[in-house]
Amino acid sequence: MRRLKAKPKTRIKTGLEKSIGENSVFYPYLYLLPYALFFLIFWVYPLFDGFYVSLCRYDFAETQRTFIAFKHYISLPFDPLFRASFINTFIFVLETTPLIIGVGLAFALLLNLSFLKGKTVLRVLLISPFMLSIAAVCMTWEWILGSQFGLLNYYFSQLRLPTQTWLLEKGWSLFAVVLTTLWWTVGFNTILFLAGLQEIPDVLHEAAKIDGAGRWSNFWYITLPCLRPVLLFIIVMQIIASFKIFGQVFIMTGGGPAESSRVMVQHIYETGFQYYRMGEASAIAWVLFVIIMVFTLAQFKVLSKQTIEY
């Protein structure tokens, strides 16, 4: 009995494919065109349009933008609210970045110990806060740090210790936000560090032990250099996230008391969407963008100099 072979299905070419031709050098870029258009329309255009707005006097009450060049940028250092938000943002970055990275690395080293029991439970406990929304996290810590009915002050009173108004004092409000951020995000960094630790070949540690290296030397000369790619990624992402801090401050302290926890993104939000000074808000946003870019490039330059050879 004779078998009939099915003819392979041919794909119908579009008019654009016919006009360009499959052998054309431009043919592969057809598949990138939708994504390129999306990128240009929703990222590149708003970026440069926002820079142009920062050079204009423009609010929702005006129908046209009035070009004023760099007057917004020149006036920013003389704005006390901008100075307060600028300083508080840098304080937050300097406090959270080494704290979250250091604690995350310590937890990862602990979870990487071969004799430790219950690793799965510890991993779940560490990553669980990161799965919560920012609103849930802030409401939880508002309950813990509440001045009248807070859990922490309750235990302080039981121990005959003086209670604190953690969210209502200048010296404690920003630190309360730092503590909340640490609890929320340290688990994610721990998992990243743990993945990096498990990729380090055991032969390196064994060779170091044979050469007489102790635990500290093993960590400093073997573990830490091998973690450089992971460390670079975590530092860059952590600094960017810290500079963009907004939700915790907005929900827990509102920038108070007396602007002691006011940050730059909050200042951008209030300037643009409460006072409708869109030109000034765009200028502040561009200042923040440049700061983040400078820090990111500096970190890449410093941490990418050395390479690891096994």
Describe the overall structure.
This protein has one domain (72-303): MetI-like (MetI-like fold), CATH 1.10.3720. 65% of the residues lie in helices and 1% in strands. The protein has helices at 15-20, 33-54, 71-75, 80-111, 119-127, 134-144, 151-158, 170-198, 202-210, 215-226, 228-243, 247-252, 264-273, 278-303, and strands spanning 56-57, 66-67. The longest helix has 32 residues, at 80-111. It is globular. The mean pLDDT is 84.
The geometry reads as globular
| Percent range for β-strand residues | under 5%
The helix content, as a percent range, equals 55-70%
Order of helices and strands: HHEEHHHHHHHHHHHH
| CATH homologous superfamily (4th level) name | MetI-like
Low-confidence spans: none
Number of helices: 14
Provide the CATH architecture.
Orthogonal Bundle
The pLDDT mean sits at 84
Broad CATH class: Mainly Alpha
| Strand order, sheet with most strands | 1-2
Indicate how many domains the architecture comprises: 1
First and last CA, distance: 64 Å
At the fold tier of CATH, the topology name is MetI-like fold
Q: What would you say about this model in short?
A:
The termini are far apart.
